[in-house]
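Quick question: what would this complex look like in 3D?
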Amino acid sequence: MTVHPQTTRESLSKERLRLWLKLLKTSRSIEDEVRRRLRRHHDWTLPRFDVMSALSRAPDGLKMGEISRMLKVSGGNITGIVDKLTEEGLALRVAIPGDRRAQLVRLTDKGQEMFARHSADHEAWIDDILGGLDADDLGGMIARLDRLTETLLAEDKDAD
Amino acid sequence: MTVHPQTTRESLSKERLRLWLKLLKTSRSIEDEVRRRLRRHHDWTLPRFDVMSALSRAPDGLKMGEISRMLKVSGGNITGIVDKLTEEGLALRVAIPGDRRAQLVRLTDKGQEMFARHSADHEAWIDDILGGLDADDLGGMIARLDRLTETLLAEDKDAD
């Protein structure tokens, strides 16, 4: 028998705060673990993985500003990452016809292949890290996170 | 009737990846919303709130390095925040007896009072943002996040 003291309004609020702190802590811990494995197995940083991931989903290429916005990272950092990817032959910059000032960045074939391999590793790591959760756990959590996202989208609308 | 294709090993792995991406996205969205409200209502930054929060739980004070480690933020940023808190009379630096090089930072009474008020607002915002989740949802998610944390702690041990 479990007693549920959280049925009062005040304790529900405390439980929501507790969940939020756990949500934040867990997602940071998982991110740290992924960061460690990327470094150890591939000598990659997480921002590099994220840039490659964004580029891999845009076969026609992305503008620098688009990458920054997608990853919410400042332009300066993205430039450094793209410079290194270009040096290593994983990405290239192509001119946009009719726009002399902007360029598109896209992955080379070598970049696509390498990202496909690292991305498979990434999926396997997540499968390992989240291995304690079965199909029911996953379905239940995904449904609740979706409900949270709906509330957040409604907040955004209020703010406009 | 719902079909559960995720019973195969491969689709379970895809579901875990899907959960992870949602977990990351949701916690970033909530953090952004808290950041916006802190800025709008109190003209505070989130790192300032986090530093005040750490100090509020340490009545005897914290060394600068301890604050950095707790918040995983670089020392330079923490110094700037503590300088401003000190200027505003919310925190003060005190010498450590027997240690001429180190100082402890702690909140003033004014700092404690102000943080108590902002912290109550923070709890109310989280209650609002997570309002779509009832006691059962909260209990279920907390239990699953705890299970995830156990896996992560076991990983850490493997890495040592």
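Answer marked as accepted. Chain B touches chain A through 53 residues (CB under 8 Å).
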